[in-house]
Write a structure and sequence with these properties.
The protein contains 3 helices and 7 strands. It has 137 residues and is an alpha/beta fold.
């Protein structure tokens, strides 16, 4: 099983029900956390050998809200980001959610976007009008 590197407990020094930021290592590809959206401060670290292997691992999930990775190679960033089946990707940052940014996922993580200029599309009615026959009398 996975090993807890840090955290893994309820944050008893805070009011309410908060969980300590947690980092897991030695996470296997068939672990539950690898195929669900954990809405909490948990990072699961997995081992991989190649770029294509980690892309396949990520894309094998039924969900695709957001993902994060780190790289100094700009060419690799674009290649990996375009290959990942995710609605939002943070590269070298975990701060990807703002009111001005379209928020949403792919696969079982939803369809459409909230926020940003794309979010208003959900509330708009689009109408297409095609005109013909104006050239003649």
């Amino acid at each position: 099983g996975a090993e807890i590197l840090v955290g893994g407990k309820r944050a008893t020094d805070l009011p309410g029900t908060f969980f300590q930021p947690t980092v897991l290592s030695n996470v296997s590809n068939d672990s539950q956390i690898m195929d669900e959206e954990t809405f909490g401060p948990v990072a699961a670290l997995i081992k991989f050998e190649t770029e294509s292997e980690v892309i396949d691992i990520c894309n094998s999930s039924d969900v695709g809200l957001a993902g994060y990775f780190f790289s100094r190679d700009v060419g690799r960033v674009w290649k990996v980001a375009e290959a990942l089946e995710l609605g939002m990707i943070g590269v070298n940052t975990g701060l990807i959610s703002q009111a001005c940014i379209p928020f949403g996922g792919v696969k079982e993580s939803g369809l459409g976007r909230e926020g940003g200029p794309h979010g208003i599309d959900e509330y708009m009615e689009t109408k297409f009008i095609a005109f013909g026959g104006l050239a003649g009398k």
